[in-house]
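Thread: PBG complex, take 2
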Amino acid sequence: MTQGPFPATRFRRLRRTEPLRRLVRETGLQTSDFIWPTFVRGGTGERDDVPSMPGVERLSVDLLVEAAREAADLGIPAICIFPYTDASLKTETCEEAWNPDNLSNRAVSAIKEAGIDIAVMTDVALDPYNANGHDGIVRDGVIVNDESVAALVRMALAQARAGADILGPSDMMDGRIGAMRAALEADGFKDVAIMSYTAKYASAFYGPFRDAVGASGALTGDKKTYQMDPGNTDEAMRLVERDLGEGADMVMVKPGMPYLDICTRVKRDFGVPTFAYQVSGEYAMLKGAAERGWLDGEAVMLETLQGFKRAGCDGILTYFARDAARLLNG
Ligand code: PBG
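Output below.
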């Protein structure tokens, strides 16, 4: 590429007006780029705020169905469900995770039964149901891999039976994608998609989420023996290769903004559907600053979302999905 010297080249010519800027914009942002993570709680007609995530609510199943309908009407293609599980249902063996009638499975079925044209994604990890807050089963202080995978497979099948379109294993155990894929094939769920939380880092940005699902109090220690070390890039590429080999349809990088380099490299090296999760702490940080008048909330929302697209992502899981879609739809 050769670029003439000034004044033959004046970059400001194409920045002069909004139509000209739009004409040469390299990266777009559409409502179809979003997956909306939501929190479901028990009861009917109930909603409560998540204090560390201003604007985010936990909704009872009936209200979540209405929210899903609104999301579909806005053109958002997928909604992701996370349950706020009552402390009395949390055990060391996590049976509630594969209860066909648990909160998450009831929410999935309700959205599907309402005939709403939106893909429903679930979270496959044991932490909402675990007395000690970990994503896997804990024995003598160790998060045991293979036993956890067996539990996760039961959980995944229960979600598939409830009608989930996309399973989102967020647990970071080894071998879980292959085990789930085999079980789905064997049980007649060959068309259930898996979006693997492939490059999920041990991050301090998940704090508000753990409040939202009621896991903060339960968690003992940290998740560094299963989630990735924030210093690693090559390892993320090996994980993508592994998860694709085991039957993942889509891969995810999480968190988002501090890991855009990983998104770019995954998309460039593999060319597969690549998603980023703009996590709770990223949302809280932007919202908190906007509430204080330190940032223009709408502007930074759209700028960060476009950043994910520019980095190579096909889509973004973001708590801003509904607000951004409303704005983009004018
Ligand atoms: C749990 C899970 C977490 C998130 C999604 N699934 C938290 C964690 O790993 O501790 C984080 C999402 C967010 O912070 O928005 N398996």
